[in-house]
């Protein structure tokens, strides 16, 4: 005999503690097909106490669980209701045999009893396909730890097991538990409902208390995992000590409870989530009351959310608001009256003989104790009771299908467990308005409810305030919560208050929920969906104010025609164009006069025509810059100006040569005149300027660029992209202006009609200083004022040449014609020669 067989045989010895029961009792009802039931009528939290004794635990020695007896009554009610109707299993009598499992202490013996034959034997064999155990299905037990133990046994026989309260998600593994189904949503949904409740009330700073058993550890870890992605932090987590059965609180347990409650009071968190069996909480809440702790929101797991014994501690109303997640309330017609009705004797099953019984099928005080909680059980609605009720009906519908029942009869053939299991997976019916079917993990996805504890006898002690729908994974709020706070305000439990829009979080400590809020600076914004701990910079073409959550496009700024500055400069340019045109007409009409020849003769028109073109290109500075307008500014305009400057420079040089160098270098001067030196000079410098301009265009591009306005960050200044090359682009003109100034200074003693020093000096000095000033200003400032000054200085330089150089000569031609004669000029030259001699 193998180790497994010896262990089973050893445990099977425990089955022979028998007594002869009555035909009908709370625990047993004869029938054609029996359902096994496992319920916790009493609670022994430390099952290891009995491991030193070769005896089955005596559950009646421990504290009674009112809810456990209520669930047992729900199974009795469902079976008897099915037997009393003709539409389901007609002609078939369902029976039941139920056992008190003392929470987790008494699981093995009842399972072996259910699996045994009527002769109490449990054979060891290789194939159980045609094995018929005592029961066709098992309902229960009520917790995940016991359910796991039972399921390992029942799965070997593929005996259907439907649990009504075990929520561990490990039970969804059909490879390990192929015959296990549930009529309650799993722990994943219970925890999700809690998390969504916290999010709804904006609680992100909580305390977690768990029991030291598998239930507390598993669900506590599940909540930790879920909160990690929901921006909810756990201030601290503590493990509650488990009480010894039927013993006073030990000094160590009392000290431990005192420390936990004191730590809760010292914490700024006011939301306390408890995952623990109900019996482990009695001593804890007594300590809470002893320390007179108030102001908390207690969130109960399904294990104690509707526990009437804890609710009976009415002083708890002063400790805060109690919320809990539990099964949906489905009123079962007639159950409240049935709960308090004692079992009635009835005839034995027609196909069965008197049966033996197993241990823990007695509860002398159950009805009396339950009677004292009758009101609260009735008002609270049938929550978990419906899970038991629907489990029994699921088995009945599967039997109905397996036995090929008609409206009047069923075949009453032998039912093998695996056959019934297949039919249970297929059930799909409506029970009290709710669809009953199992998903592929064996779960019945009934809705959950969030309830609030109330102590007003005229109200429901467990008022539903919200519903959670597992299929949608969505929590929907319903009834308003009555908060145990001043003015009924929602309690606040946040390590740090939410930051205002546009503020980033700076973490404090290890918890992401603890932080200080810092403003995002102008030019940055906060995108909370991407990163709520850092401000992001706006793109170059956008801007933001302090504490903005997004950037907005900057307003493009450029010179426009309606601006006062533009109008003034345009008027100056227009006057300059008209005056230059007038000067050209005057010079054309007096082209062969001495005054015009002394000014340069035909070369004057080489200056006047570019000046006119330069004035005509002033409108390219106004309006939205384009590639064409920028190209005109950067090339054609600067070429026109270079031609004018080079003509003035060569004119100054030529006058100095005539009066001061011709006598000393006659051959050089003769070559200068013979080969049209002035025109060669102008052409050479113009060609050089073309090379420089083309190089600038190729390197820097003529496309306009946008830059932030330093005076107003909301504005982008749209301008031509030639500022970096401005000094290099004007270097040749600056060199010519210095040369022209030098030659003019050298000719300051020439005859009055040829002495142009003061006019050229004025033009060249103004151009030199304005260009240097503009280049310096552009290097430190990039606002729209730069474009205005650029245009203004350009127009003033053009006016300086038009009026400063040509204006005096035109004035002499028009108002002093007697001085515009050959005789007058000859006298002036003769006088200059006599003075030099």
Automatic annotation (TrEMBL):
Signal peptide as annotated in the record: 1-19
KW Iron-sulfur (keyword) present: no
Family assignment from sequence similarity: Belongs to the G-protein coupled receptor 3 family. TAS1R subfamily.
Keyword Cytoplasm: no
Ranges of residues in domain G-protein coupled receptors family 3 profile: 565-829
Protein name: Taste receptor type 1 member 2
Species this chain originates from: Mustela putorius furo (European domestic ferret)
Pfam (any one): NCD3G
Gene Ontology MF term list: G protein-coupled receptor activity; sweet taste receptor activity
Bilayer disposition of the protein: Multi-pass membrane protein
Keywords associated with the record: Cell membrane, G-protein coupled receptor, Glycoprotein, Membrane, Receptor, Sensory transduction, Signal, Taste, Transducer, Transmembrane, Transmembrane helix
Membrane-spanning residues: 564-587, 599-616, 636-659, 679-699, 726-747, 759-781, 787-806
Entry GO CC: plasma membrane; sweet taste receptor complex
Gene3D superfamilies: 3.40.50.2300, GPCR, family 3, nine cysteines domain (2.10.50.30)
Subcellular location per the Swiss-Prot or TrEMBL entry: Cell membrane
Annotated SUPFAM superfamilies: Periplasmic binding protein-like I, TNF receptor-like
Quaternary structure and interacting proteins, as annotated: Forms heterodimers with TAS1R3.
Entry superkingdom: Eukaryota
Protein function: Putative taste receptor. TAS1R2/TAS1R3 recognizes diverse natural and synthetic sweeteners.
